[in-house]
Design goal:
The protein has helices at about 1-10, 20-35, 45-65, 70-95, 100-110. Helix 1 crosses helix 3 and helix 3 runs antiparallel to helix 4. It has one domain. With about 110 residues, the chain is mostly helical.
């Protein structure tokens, strides 16, 4: 999970959009990791997951709005990441008592230097 979060931070520092193939590969890597290990994550890891889900969903929504051959794929990725973001947010609320504002603040702190 740490490597995926580090990769997100790297992407956030870039000036240009990453190519579709790289975006799709990152998306697949993230979702595969979550499908395998999601139940084992502690609060801090879940907050990192939420930051990834939020950023990837926002970027996929943005890129899905363009009229190119990958727009439908970006829209599908956005839907899946939005689903994950909701699931993670719900788990943080139920298991750790965190509100959406508290999660957002924790994410802002994690990504403050990017």
């Amino acid at each position: 999970m740490e490597a995926l979060f580090a990769k997100l931070r790297e992407y956030l520092q870039m000036e240009e959009d990453i190519p579709f193939a790289e975006f799709a590969a990152y998306f697949k890597e993230v979702t595969a990791e979550w499908q395998s290990n999601y139940q084992q994550y502690d609060k801090e890891t879940l907050i990192k997951c939420q930051s990834i889900a939020t950023v990837v969903a926002a970027n996929a929504i943005d890129r899905g709005g363009s009229k190119d051959m990958n727009s439908k794929k970006f829209k599908k990725m956005a839907e899946k990441m939005s689903f994950w973001a909701q699931a993670i947010e719900l788990r943080l609320e139920k298991e750790h008592g965190l509100t959406k504002d508290q999660v957002d603040k924790a994410i802002d702190e994690l990504l403050a230097d990017v």
